[in-house]
Amino acid sequence: MISFSKRVFTLLTLFCLSATVAAQGQKIEEGFDYRILPIAQPLESKGKVEVIEFFWYGCPHCYDFEPELSSWVKRQPKDVVFSRVPVAFREDLMPHSQLFYALEAMGKGDALNEKVMYAIHKENKRLLTEPEIVDWVASQGVDRNTFLATYRSFAVVSKARASKQLAEAYRIDGVPTIVMQGRYVTSPSIAGTKAKAIAVMDYLEEKIRKDKYKQ
Fold it and tell me: What is the pLDDT of residues 138-184, one digit of tens each?
């Protein structure tokens, strides 16, 4: 005879399994879960699934989405090319874009990007002035003078400016936003939840492959 507690456990297990199956089988629709840009943007490589995350270090929603997005990126096969583009919706936020590209130029992006976001969202650091940025980066073991020269360099400043123009070309009006294959746009806010956004990304990834990586 099955005890009451075991029956409850069994029912809860079945409920969780059915909920998981329902989530995986969610219907994904253009116009609701993702949209298509009227003008597709150029791709950088052929035979690849190109994925861009438009983000801002100071965005709490970007910070909140980061664990799920990082997990998604880690399980992708070699035909998926992922990149990040910082977005500065105002001029006073440009230092964050410069910080991103300076770390990237020094090969420190992968190691420090999450730490930058943690410092901003958990340690209440703004990192919006040059002295504050340089002090923080130096505290992470990066040479102060080398970083400062990189941060002020023409290449980094130009990339930060170009990222603003790129966001405008992609019609980015909020972050985080994911663009796939230069034309498919989704996000947690568009899809409704972080989990649904990831499901949409999986759906679009397969769609792009079925379409032979075309736009």
Answer: 999 999 999 999 999 999 999 999 999 999 999 999 999 999 999 99
Residue 22 within any structural domain of the chain: no
Cβ atoms within 10 Å of 104's Cβ, excluding its own: 19
Q: Do 34 and 179 touch, CB atoms closer than 8 A? A: no
- Spatial distance between the Cα atoms of 158 and 102, rounded to a whole number of angstroms: 11
Q: Identify the domain containing residue 129 by its residue range.
A: 30-210
Query: Token pair of 186, please?
Result: 């989704």
Provide the token pair at 85. Answer: 């583009």
Does a structural domain hold residue 21? no
Quick check: 18 pLDDT over 50? no
Give dist(CA 151, CA 57) in Å, integer: 16
Tell me the C-alpha distance between 109 and 99, whole Å. Answer: 9
Runs of H (alpha helix) within 90-181: 94-105, 109-122, 130-139, 144-152, 154-169
What is the distance between the alpha carbons of residues 137 and 125, in angstroms, rounded to a whole number?
12
Is residue 183 within 8 Å of residue 169, measured between CB atoms?
no
Q: Give the per-residue SS3 of 168-191.
A: HHCCCCCCCEEEECCCEEECHHHH
